[in-house]
Design brief:
Two copies of one chain form a homodimer.
Chain A lengths: L27 H14 L3 H4 L5 E5 L2 E10 L5 E2 L2 E2 H15 L2 E13 L4 H18 L2 E10 L7 E11 L13 E4 L5 H11 L15 H9 L6 E4 L4 H13 L3 E4 L7 H10 L12 E5 L1 H12 L8 E6 L7 E4 L5 E3 L13
Parallel strand pairs in A: 5-6, 10-13
Antiparallel strand pairs in A: 1-2, 2-7, 3-4, 5-7, 8-11, 8-12, 9-11, 10-12, 13-14
Chain lengths: 347, 347
Amino acid sequence: MPTDFTLQCPVPTASDDTIVLAHGGGGKMSQRLFERVFLPAFQNEALAARHDGALIRVGGQSLAFTTDSYVVHPLEFPGGNIGDLAVNGTVNDLAMCGARPLYLTCGFILEEGLPVATLQRVVESMRVAAERAGVEMVSGDTKVVDRGKADGIFINTSGIGLVERAMSPALVEPGDAVIVSGELGAHGIAILSVREGLQFEAPIVSDTAPLWEPVNALIEAGIEVHCLRDLTRGGLASALNEIAQARGLGILVDETAVPVAEPVRGACEILGLDPLYVANEGRFVGFVSMEDADRAVRILESAGKCRKVSIAGRVLATADPTVLLRSRIGGMRILDMISGEQLPRIC
Amino acid sequence: MPTDFTLQCPVPTASDDTIVLAHGGGGKMSQRLFERVFLPAFQNEALAARHDGALIRVGGQSLAFTTDSYVVHPLEFPGGNIGDLAVNGTVNDLAMCGARPLYLTCGFILEEGLPVATLQRVVESMRVAAERAGVEMVSGDTKVVDRGKADGIFINTSGIGLVERAMSPALVEPGDAVIVSGELGAHGIAILSVREGLQFEAPIVSDTAPLWEPVNALIEAGIEVHCLRDLTRGGLASALNEIAQARGLGILVDETAVPVAEPVRGACEILGLDPLYVANEGRFVGFVSMEDADRAVRILESAGKCRKVSIAGRVLATADPTVLLRSRIGGMRILDMISGEQLPRIC
């Protein structure tokens, strides 16, 4: 069994003139599109901060405001469907801003011919997920497009949260511990297994879950959380690169300390995927000072909030914003941001 | 030339088991889907109020929070494109809640193969529209789906506004004047003209525009605005029916007092459309007490904020929530909510 492997991404061949799937992959091409098209048009502090959500002030209150569209294919997969994904994803973007999620809106784009029963199952999952996360779905919109002009259901959810503690890449310090909140890769592999008709010995189910409860536990325990990021498109590797670049500091990750469940690791090896790049929907990375790290792990694990939490690395004092990986066999390599599209339409 | 005409809607033939275009038309079938699928799942005051946006309280502040997806086809049309439509539409939903629009988010769903140049034109229109409306685009998200699984660009915009004056269907009173803020139907006919390759003597351009400025002028002048609604999908007829039903009162409209530009009226006659059902993107209906009505019209028309503003009807004292139309030839008929889909993908 190989103990180290190289990521095989499809290298985008299209020029920069045409949208390709990798523009939505959360990696280098997404970043380039953002920098080339969106950032120049909408210049403001909130957008430039490149947080998971915008931090805004409204009448003396500090709020987080975020949006995400969900185009996952297939609509239903082991452990969830597009509905709970759409609620958890936006709830988690708020949580990553240190904000208590309060209100969501949802916008549906439906394809003509969709069975209403499918929509009802998805909406029921949204109801359950919203209840679990303690948020209210206060406004919505439904559009229908002609058959063949969408793919069943697309959902946008936007959310507002009340900032309980300001967090941002700017607060990350040299020496900070990098905490990974649980085993990685289950969401991506669960999606892939349905899409490709793969059967594993042990079924792999999506990790989709709301994350405010563990984040709030850290805040209430007085842990000074510097920065959080959920590990969706592009996985841990891309999230760490984003933060390294935003803060201008290097990060070192110890591959043996990154928690990956055995069935997911096995599936990744068969499929030629690197779990560090596979998308999750209920996992995050947190930056806290090294003195707080052990206590933070215990708090996250207490009362079953998270499982297999790990201190997987630390922030370096180097001004070179590179993410380095000490691999299983002891070598060091650069853990780059995903450059192509490992697995499209994962969320 | 006929002076009265009957609306010819395609009658939906599909059962309630399958999504059809009319479910997104803003009429009876949209309403039924909302009542059958969404309302039972997400029970809360804000959603039940059936406003254009949700009124929420966050830390002592009264905010409006709204969302809309835009799937207009074609992406570009005379007078605008999907980008300024997406900004204006959400700005206007906030304005209709009596809220000063502050912050927007945008979620893009792009189809693989889309020219980046098209996206850039759309984003540039969004920039200009946001600047004009005085809102900041603070957060965004981009997803890409495979070729043939979307239709170029879909955009969701969500918005937050600060409520300056509470307005709602519940505040509408018997005897209230029904004010229409300008000539109707240009947006729908502009879209249709491109889609069907129609040429008119005078080009008809979309009325897409932000509406906070005229609404704010009414508020600042001390006009007690009871309720506002923008006249998008389903047009004036559907908006009036929604409010009549929400408030449980009848409304009488005088067809001769409803402003419609001659080129639009002519186009509607040729196409067999009723301008009262055609979508607009920069027009609204307002309810104020009859004593305030003339002054409200003058304020809206001052400084070119709106043109051809008209008192087009009044709220009846009957508890039967029916909208009645006194037609051009003097007869009375029921002006029902749109039941099919007059023109799909108008916004």
